[in-house]
Amino acid sequence: MLHKDVYLQSLVYELPQEVVTTDSIYERLGPTFKRLGIPESWISSLSGVSERRVWPVGEKLSDIAIRIARKALEKSGFKPEDIGCVICTSVSKEFIEPSMACMVHNALNLPETTISYDIANACLAFINGISYMGQLIDQGLIKAALVVDVESSRRVMENTVKNLAQDHIDLTDFSKRFAGLTLGSGACAAVVCNSELASEKHKVMGHVTLADTRYCHHCIGSFTDIITDQTSLMKAGIELAKRTWDLAAKTLADWRPELIDQYICHQVGARHSRLLFETLGIENKKSFQTFPFLGNMGPASAPITLAMAAEKGVIKALSRVAVLGIGSGLNCSMMEIVW
């Protein structure tokens, strides 16, 4: 999918203040590690996550979504009536209905003609959301859209620690629940628009995605838990990423490692990143990484990493940026943005 007239006008993020270190989690699981003979250093080297953040107890995700959406709209310089669609892409939920986007729509006083709905695709939803809004923009159906995401890991993390502390847990159980210890929290929002409205020239060039849904049962997440077949999921995910990379090379102009300036990945952990880069033949030094201090923030991971990289000057004007992600399901998406 190539985009003709889609620009990233604003991209903002917010991180919780409370930090939870991996050492503090491992201290709580000390008896389990000892009983199973698991060295803490081995576990740490696999994930590479040293800390993550959590929102305050009792803070509503919808309030955070409204706050970050308002920041994105203000930064864009647009008026509420400029926004033709608002979507929320969060995995984290407090309720089944209404959509989180409805809450944002109401709080920002968007017009009744502004479409609002939630979409979900595990860790890829924000990337997909930008592209889907881009398609509406390219078709002339809207001029601008607002994409919002807020993720909260506290409930899953605490439940995972509680479950892993039980005496009956064995190595298989530990492996299946380990992903719950690597999750982080954060919020982000973006405004995308056409060239008529754009004052920022961050052009979204295109987006490709492939699916291998034979693995749809290999990572199952709920409001309180996540169970993963880590080995098979990672192997299948990396293989799917290679096929998606090849599709991107056929679809997007000059999609080659030597011509891409920066890689922004949905970040699962150290082992996953190493294998992904080795398989795709891309340089680790071109990847700005946040998982060591933010953990895996689901759909918020890639956009927050992109925003931080731009903020720190890692991404400069006219940089060619490849945004890569693999989501449980399995799905894989890749997007190019010329900054």
Q: What is the structure about, briefly put?
A:
With 339 residues, the chain is an alpha+beta fold.
Task: Describe the overall structure.
The strands form 3 sheets. This protein has a 9-stranded mixed beta sheet with strand order 5-4-6-7-1-8-13-12-11, sandwiched between helices. A two-stranded antiparallel sheet has the order 2-3. The mean pLDDT is 95. By secondary structure, it is α+β, with helices and mostly antiparallel strands. It has helices at residues 22-28, 30-36, 40-47, 61-76, 100-107, 125-138, 154-164, 171-177, 230-251, 270-280, 291-294, 301-311; strands at residues 7-14, 18-21, 51-54, 85-88, 115-118, 144-151, 186-193, 202-211, 219-221, 226-228, 262-265, 320-327, 331-338.
What is the H/E order?
EEHHHEHEHEHEHHEEEEHEHHHEE
Instruction: Indicate the structural class.
Output: alpha+beta
- Trace the largest sheet across and list its strands: 5-4-6-7-1-8-13-12-11
Report helical residue fraction. 25-40%
Strand content: 15-25%
End-to-end gap: 19 Å
**Poorly predicted runs of 5 or more residues:** none
Mean pLDDT, as a whole number? 95
Number of strands: 13
Envelope shape: globular
Main pleated sheet? 9 strands, mixed
User: Rg from C-alpha positions?
Assistant: 20 Å
> What is the number of helical segments per DSSP (H or I, 4+ residues)?
12
